[in-house]
Amino acid sequence: MGAIFGLLNRRGGVVSRESLVPMAKDLATRAPDGTRYFVDGAAALGNGHNLTTPDAVRDEQPLRHPPTGCTLTADIRLDNREELLTALDCRHPASDAELTLLAYLKWGRDCVDHLLGDFAFAIWDPRDQTLFAARDHMGMKPFAYFANDGWFVFGSTPMSVVAAPMVPRKLYEPRIADFLLDDQIPLEGIDHESTFWQDVYRLPPGHRMIVSSHTVDLSRYWQPTALSHSDKTSDGDYEAHFLEVFDEAVRCRLRMSKPGGIMLSGGLDSGSVAAAAVLSAGRPPLRTFSGVTDDPTFIETAMIRRNQETCGLQPVDVPLTDVSRHANQALADLLKTEEPFNFTATMPRQVYRTAADHGVSVMLDGVMGDVVTSTGSMILRLVRSGHVLTAYRDCIGEADFARQSSLSGALKFGRVVRRVLMPSAVRHLRSAHWNRHAPAEIIARSTIDPVFAKRVDAIGRIRAMRASLERRTPYDREAEAMATMVFPFISSAREGYDRIAAAWGIECRDPYTDRRLVEFCIGLPDDQKRRRGWPKHIVRRAMADRMPEDLRWRRGFQHVGRRFNNALEEAIPKDRVQAARLSVREYMKPPAGSSAENHTLMALTLEKFLERV
User: Fold this and answer.
1) Domains of the chain, start order
2) Burial, 169: exposed, middle or buried (Cβ in 10 Å; 0-12, 13-18, 19+)?
3) Which residues neighbour 91 within 8 Å (Cβ) at sequence distance 6 or greater?
4) Annotation-wise, does 96 bind a ligand?
5) Peptide bond into 62 cis (omega under 30)
6) pTM
7) pLDDT for 227-244, tens place per residue?
8) Whole-angstrom Cα distance, residue 202 to residue 572?
9) What separation, in Å, do the N-terminal and C-terminal C-alpha atoms of the chain show?
10) Rounded-to-integer distance, Cα 21 and Cα 40, Å
11) Would you say 372 and 137 are in contact if contact means Cβ atoms under 8 Å apart?
12) Beta-carbon neighbour count of residue 215 at 10 Å?
């Protein structure tokens, strides 16, 4: 992880290094190894260093190519270095940044088609006075920007962009509404572009842009595709190929020059990452970090202990009791959160703080495991294709997996059947009825003030979110999986973890966002990902020799995060809470008028964010 930032005077006037300084200041936690600047006439670039890969120590970003003057600033980790070294005929040990600059010089804007890994970068090309920028396929690295007739400004975060003196610091209020409604409908993922600042946008994952004096040309360079599995004839074939791809994804993310860790839960996703990391040849020393409780009835903690024992890495517990014992620190960590959406991330904040105290600068996780191995509307497809008994068994199995009654599974099956049999005219009527009535009901249940909701047309945003969800194609397995992989909540979730970790100078790496693994999973038949209601079936089978059976076939879901949030709320002085609620009353209803959980944390986070505006 590092920080990138810069600006372009689109009218051709000379820019100064001083314009970059406030941007660098805002990104300081991302740059524990220092910051460097580059100025060339109308363009200025900056790079905040966090040298987490072995080759990065040779970097002197912003990196300039003397013959052409092309200059790059990048936050990057490339996973296909050997392939690039050969293709670029590079005979010296080049850094990831240098390989990216050489790729641009050889392939131009198509250079991104040759890059594999996590990256966000910008290249100033003085030959035609343009700025080229790109963001990785899944959005692991952030990129925000502002553009008007006179200026183009970019940075790793929206806050760093508005720190530039030429960018108006104006709040985009509809995003406040997204935040206040997010516990009712996931408006954080309404699109790839919105930020809390007027005219400041996020570059969507898998996109590139070219900025000149007259145009800002934004285009998609990657659309997920499905890897063919026509050569496979047995479960064993699928499992072997999965392990090949998955192990390589983990191995690539173990290339680090600073101490690393794994955020370890009692589940399959992070457990599989830890199991693969242990087997990776030449891996660095790793610690695991886990949020735990001393409640003996809490199954999650017991499963974490099993994961810790199995992977054999150095375990570090992050106890729930730390929240109340160090409540002032936990509250301070909450209030320095860059964006309000992360207000319920008490446990991850505690984990990253603890990891930083142990000197960790790189943290692996398995956050996207659920999404990448999802089967979406599989039951709907089974019923529609006539596999009714299989669909029924899956619903019953899902209920069993979730520790629910068979009746709940049967009821779900009935709902699916009704949906399949429902005439399209009736579906349209139901959708129209939802659009007329449901948005107002959502607002009534939420914490948003109704006057503010009307001012920003919150109903319109709710309807837009619903429409985007309905545009997916549930009857086409591959099309639905591809749409899921580019849905905005993917990058929004990863951006949230990035923001929290960056406060402690930690870089996030998630093997489940590896492009090769994503496309492998898109192509999988449904029954490889789910059987008899059990999700992630291929992962459970593939980990047979790596994880114990009780972990792989654990039933139900349990997460300690809610307990961390509740502990923090209970530890905050009542007068502090009341003051926060008063300060945000223009936006939020009192808790008595809302069904929102963790109303206190929401009010405190919003109050602190608004102070920065």
Assistant:
1) 3-220 (3.60.20.10), 235-372+488-563 (3.40.50.620), 572-613 (no CATH)
2) middle
3) none
4) yes
5) yes
6) 0.96
7) 999 999 999 999 999 999
8) 34
9) 26
10) 16
11) no
12) 12
